[in-house]
Amino acid sequence: MPSVNTWRAVIAQSGEFRVTSNSMVPTLLPGDIAHVTPLRRSLSAGDIGVYVRDGQLIVHRYLGRAGFRGDNRANLDPAVAADAIVGRVRSFKRAGRRHRIPVLLPRLACMLRPVKAMYDGARSTRCGSAGYG
Prior knowledge:
Elements: H1 4-13, E1 16-18, E2 33-38, E3 48-53, E4 56-62, E5 68-69, E6 85-94, E7 97-100, H2 104-127
Antiparallel strand pairs: 1-2, 2-6, 3-4, 3-6, 4-5, 6-7
């Protein structure tokens, strides 16, 4: 199993990895080539971070203090130690074309998620099982 330091060295040398799961759909699709840069500053909410868990690279969206979650996943990832975070995805290649990772809309979505959760909770409590409308 590669260590965190091994993955850091690999990222510093090449930084391109094939996406193998659907956890980041629709942003990253299986078969895309993610361009990962070494982490030089802290991640911001909405960034796509790369961390090591059990020797594997995990590429998921950073949600701020809440942690990480794949765009195509309902649940947060288990807690990630700061020293396990090794990089961020800056761009990706799909069908031979390079695409930049969108930043503004995912960050806005991360900021609005707690507001949406409060609204959804208040709406479901107010309407109960009978529902209105």
